[in-house]
Write a structure and sequence with these properties.
One of its GO terms (molecular function) is ATP binding. The chain has 18 helices and 12 strands. By secondary structure, the chain is of the alpha/beta class. The structure holds adenosine-5'-triphosphate.
Length: about 600
């Protein structure tokens, strides 16, 4: 049983409750950036962002004071001080706006650094110990790619936005509530038969209207949140279909399925469009309600302060300052209360990301012990391969010993478990029981039926992580010639999608050539020459068999390939039997094909 050893590892993960695991993951998302060696970048940036936020709110409060003084000077025709206040107003206003934009820039930088860190860690955890393979094979998580690319971004921007927005709103509420307390007057009203008197009429008006506005918007907004989430889902479905058409272009073209695919795309597009229209209708309603509320909140402080102005208890500047403070307080209160939709969207993304993380951390159900020893032999004993959710075993092998230089072929009917056995040897199939030991110092290379050729030049694809030295280039050229791809030597530096350009048989030859850039001690082939004609397959096998130190384990169906091996593991009725192969010695082939 293996637990992924990653920067996110935690012991006995599966024994913890889901809530614990979620909180742990949230702690990791925050701690992996702010408590890691990145703290030297993270904390100064965060403190700078907070300073700018608080400074901006504080300066805005000062700006409202200057604004008041300016209007008071106008009211009392005190012309001499007007230029000074006007300059101060422009200077402080410019500073507020500059700080706001600089703050947004810094927040974006911090958000991107944080997102990058978490994406790197999640990707590392996903790719470590072949977790991505087990998760895909068991179909445990859908669209892992989308979760890494999209949900990390949404979670970071959501968590950061909620944190910064809440602090800014709380500070703003404190400052502008204090300011409005000074402008408020006593008011008496009746509520549920009780007479209530408060000294803070303007403050009360701001809180009550904000709560009411939030209630209305929240009611309508819940539907919008659902529509937003559905939109993401529909967009994801559309992307998935388009990617799958691109990936399976040839199969679709041969099957003449383009009309069906077109219909699938049109249906997915239609779901995107209809949901988008519903989303837009709801957005218009919400914007309309918000505009009305905001107009009302602009007029309300005037309604409350004008009688005091008329009675000479307030200046014109007081009215202007009160109105501005009232609007800022209302929008801060409303923001704080409207945080719920943002929270629910962030929570939905967090949940999706957590499901992936959880799947990565969960150890595989396993009974097969794979270990590495100092022995040169590969040894299999008491092996039982099972399928998920099925009690009847797929395949049983009592004892199987593979000595260095052995050439084994695995045969059996389709679906008998040949590839599954190879997966078990590679540590990619652990369901069952028994033990497999592999030589610890041997280089083992597995070749599936079709190789993985990501975008790149042929030289990059061949060398993988090795540096492209002159010797390495010569070796690649020689191997391409050995495996009958001499025409590719001139194209070593050409990049592109070689999976598309090369025929399956050429891809198989390329994979064999690539395998010998770092020559393996044990080469395991899963029908890795199935796309070749008999002569070419024979010749390539002759090349492999001519390497006496190379241990070869091949899955093959064709008798000519089977005959080339000196030992055979045959699977029938769920049981493996070991034997020598037919007497056709590969030696004659070797002599005629020694140089391919
Ligand atoms: N992830 C899985 N979940 C459930 N069943 C699986 C899974 N992977 C393989 N199987 C089943 O295990 C059986 C053996 O599959 P395997 O690929 O090993 O057969 P094979 O002998 O290599 O077949 P072929 O010669 O056609 O390649 C098949 O019935 C297959 O459907």
């Amino acid at each position: 049983m293996t637990t992924p050893v990653t920067s996110f590892s935690v012991s006995a993960w599966e024994t913890r409750s889901r809530s614990f695991r979620k909180i742990y993951f949230l702690g990791k998302v925050v701690g992996a950036f702010f408590l890691s060696k990145d703290w030297k970048k993270a904390w100064p940036l965060l403190l700078l962002c907070l300073g700018i936020q608080f400074g901006g709110v504080y300066l805005f409060a000062i700006e409202t004071g200057i604004n008041k003084a300016l209007f008071d000077a106008l009211q009392y025709k005190n012309i001499a001080v007007i230029p000074r206040y006007a300059i101060e107003f422009v200077a402080v206003g410019s500073l507020v706006y500059s700080l706001t934009y600089f703050g947004v820039y810094l927040e974006n930088v911090l958000g991107m650094l944080w997102r990058n860190k978490i994406s790197v860690l999640v990707t590392e955890a996903w790719l470590s110990n072949d977790r991505f393979y087990f998760i895909e094979r068991a179909e445990r998580v859908e669209n892992a790619d989308q979760r890494i690319a999209e949900d990390v971004r949404l979670v970071i921007s959501g968590v950061f936005g909620i944190f910064m927005g809440s602090l800014r709103s709380l500070y703003s509420i404190a400052i502008f509530t204090a300011l409005l307390v000074r402008r408020s007057a006593p008011v008496t009203f009746h509520l549920f038969g009780h007479e209530i008197t408060t000294r803070y009429d303007i403050v009360l008006a701001a809180y009550v209207t904000s709560i009411l506005a939030t209630g209305i918007i929240f009611r309508i907004g819940r539907k919008l949140t659902r529509l937003n989430m559905r939109q993401q889902h529909y967009e994801g479905d559309l992307r998935f279909i388009l990617v799958s058409v691109r990936k399976h272009a040839e199969q679709i073209a041969f099957m003449a399925r383009s009309r069906i695919e077109h219909l699938r795309i049109v249906t997915a597009l239609s779901a995107v469009m209809h949901n988008y229209f519903a989303q837009q209708r709801m957005s218009v309603v919400i914007s309309f309600v918000m505009q009305i509320v905001s107009h009302f909140q602009r007029v309300l402080p005037l309604v409350l302060t004008i009688p005091r102005y008329m009675a000479g208890r307030m200046t014109y500047g007081d009215i202007m300052q009160t109105q501005s403070a009232f609007q800022t307080l209302s929008s801060s209160l409303t923001w704080l209360m409207q945080m719920y939709p943002m929270y629910s969207e962030t929570n939905a993304s967090f949940d999706r990301l957590f499901v992936l993380f959880d799947a990565i951390q969960m150890p595989e159900e396993t009974g097969i012990a794979l270990s590495h020893t100092a022995s040169d032999d590969v040894s299999v004993s008491g092996l039982v391969l099972s399928l998920p959710g099925k009690s009847a075993p797929l395949l049983k092998i009592g004892h199987w010993e593979i000595a260095p230089g052995d050439k084994w072929v695995i045969t059996g009917a389709s679906g008998s478990g040949k590839s599954t056995l190879l997966r078990a040897l590679a540590g990619l199939w652990q369901i069952g029981e028994g033990a497999i030991t592999l030589p610890q110092d041997a280089r083992i290379t597995f070749l599936p039926q079709l190789p993985y050729l990501p975008h790149g030049t042929l030289l990059e694809l061949m060398l993988q992580t090795q540096p492209p030295s002159k010797e390495a280039r010569e070796l690649c050229a020689d191997l391409l010639c050995q495996f009958r791809l001499s025409w590719l030597v001139a194209q070593l530096d050409i990049g592109g999608d070689w999976n598309q350009r090369l025929s399956p048989g050429e891809q198989q030859r390329f994979a064999l050539a690539r395998a010998f850039v770092s020559p393996p001690d044990i080469l395991i082939l899963d029908e890795a020459t199935s796309g070749l004609d008999q002569n070419t397959a024979d010749a390539l096998y002759a090349n492999l068999l001519a390497r006496p130190d190379l241990t070869l384990i091949s899955v093959a169906h064709t008798p000519n390939i089977v005959r080339l091996h000196d030992r055979r593991l045959h699977i029938a009725n769920g049981t493996a039997t070991l034997s020598e192969t037919a007497p056709t010695s590969p030696v004659s082939l070797l002599s005629s094909n020694r140089k391919l």
